[in-house]
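Objective 1.3, modelling of assemblies. Example input:
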Amino acid sequence: MSTIDDVRECQGGVTLARGFTAGGIYCGIRKAKKDLAIIRSDKPAAVAAVFTQNRTQAAPVLVDKIQLQRSSVCSAIVVNSGNANACTGERGLNDAWDMVKATARALALPEDQVMVSSTGVIGQYLPMEKVLTGIVELVPRLSGSGGQDAAEAIMTTDTYRKESAVQFTLGRSVVTIGGMAKGSGMIAPNMATMLAFITTDAVIGRPLLQKALNRANRHSFNRITVDGDMSTNDTAVVLANGAAGNGAFGEQSEEFQLFCAALEYVMIKLAKMIARDGEGATKLIEVCVKGAKTETEAEAVARSVANSNLVKTAVHGNDANWGRIMAAVGYSGADVDPDAVEIRFNELPVLNRGYEIVLDEKKAAEALAGEQVMIVVDLNRGKEEARFWTCDLTKEYVHINASYRS
Amino acid sequence: MSTIDDVRECQGGVTLARGFTAGGIYCGIRKAKKDLAIIRSDKPAAVAAVFTQNRTQAAPVLVDKIQLQRSSVCSAIVVNSGNANACTGERGLNDAWDMVKATARALALPEDQVMVSSTGVIGQYLPMEKVLTGIVELVPRLSGSGGQDAAEAIMTTDTYRKESAVQFTLGRSVVTIGGMAKGSGMIAPNMATMLAFITTDAVIGRPLLQKALNRANRHSFNRITVDGDMSTNDTAVVLANGAAGNGAFGEQSEEFQLFCAALEYVMIKLAKMIARDGEGATKLIEVCVKGAKTETEAEAVARSVANSNLVKTAVHGNDANWGRIMAAVGYSGADVDPDAVEIRFNELPVLNRGYEIVLDEKKAAEALAGEQVMIVVDLNRGKEEARFWTCDLTKEYVHINASYRS
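Predicted structure (tokens):
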């Protein structure tokens, strides 16, 4: 049987899978930084998507939801950074539709096969003349090596490009899944201020693709938090254009399990990159909750710890303040027995059952000093677990967010 | 009918009401700062209390809950700062009981009439020799003018003492309610890392006193947030010793309404002082949500906005980033219509219905530059409202919490 071990990690992003082109340029929304991207599939691709659960939804999210009802395939996605086109009312909706129409026209596609995403400042209107001119300029430049430019163009306060890709074999066909994402503030579970676009050449129908996305999303983008603020624009889209020519498979098949594992691999990698690149962050924190009765319980505790400003500032200061972790476990809403809880930093035991404190301050500070810190919380009441990723909370976060718009 | 207008604000704290003494000294838990306080009632007082809802509860909280079952009256409360005696297991429980016993012995009180509170670092054992010596030293110094020393002794990272008091007339008796509190990090609704002790000379039975406390608590200590982290030690206690000699009153009486209003006044004042003095804070932010269908809905939206790191950093930077407020409204869980929402800073309209942006950046920056900022969110769907208090999020918060233990 195929397993995740059959999945090979590769260099590349949204243009690694066959039949996809992309590009990214500067159109003038931001100051001297690429701000407009397009991803194109040669053939209409099966499409699946998940969106923010915020009641305040940005115009492009509202437009995409309509597009997904109008058409079961998608051939292009246009994305801008620098402006979220959120809280912009009727005018913002018209602007999002105009981006769709302009992209469809420039690519000679049916309008219902184009999706749109935006990220950046909330509550300001898009400079549409620049955007529409940019779309016309960008289309001729789309190429099979344009994934990197596209990944750069969707960045906002991100400090590095986020791409991830894998290959694996389905029957006799090599299948590729590649993606790109952007973070970096307003990141919270369900989901984050994040955009992710994933392309694959797998042959897979839309309903199965959506199931695979939902499953992978639960373990990746819904498991990261930077500041607990849920965005208005969060979007993750997967396009599957079938260019790999693998045989069809059903939900119970080994092939589907492998596809899901591969998609999850790509998405978790992107999710961790987003968490590590949280605004002002200097460390990636992985919170691993074990010994829970249910995965939902493990998730609740992990989320609570990962969202704690006090835990995140303590990790920033290499301070083994496990008491703050216990406090966050306690207010997670999970029905835990504090007396049974064990805590470890990486492999180092800090607290054993019955509040037996085994903290070696020096070793703990060393464990926390790394760029990747794992906080293990064992609830000792079951066999389920969940992982959550976040970053430390720093003065730089405050600096960035006290003056983001200026 | 008596109203809140009949309530006079006074200088003073826990020793303003008749029949209460208090004091605070340095016993050696902290570095060169008062760290031990006792409040004493001459006569056994009716007692009401509310505690943290964190599953991880500190030893003194567990002890107090037992004390409240053992006795319906309380004559003294002993409090230390510098060490929370939380996550300290069996040994911590014994230490809390030893504080109770030592205080009872020194004051010649039945053990079940003494309560105990602790605040400070989690997960470290109390230096009991110092604490017990301190109790014996402090008891002879308790006095009717010792409220201020007590208020200083319970401070942790608080930058100022928090006291509040009122007087009003019930029948022919002048009744006093006075209190003290400490904040300042790990402040979250339901409740905060906060301790509050309130004394009154009113004649009021324990069941009514508890009802009054619950009601006032909902509108005060449960409406403040600094960092969303709920503490293990939160405690608010009210003692009513009856020294004012007013006539008894029932739940439906005007007198009870007045007592509740007065208690709420004192507690809201303390709550706002805690929010304003949040770690690293430079401003008090009041979030006022209007036009909700229910108070619970208004509370949910106000909590969401007040807890948003992004809103709090924006206010810190005098940045009129109302989009972040809309995002927080959207993820509050309340069933709001974003299109109907209006936002004002103090009296200044920023957003009208239908996303009509009426923001004057210059005026808005001025409104945000004050030491007190009111964010008004009108949901335009009902008549209920709720207020929440918080502070701005600053680099100093990170600084304090990245090295709190050292």
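Chain B has a mean pLDDT of 91.
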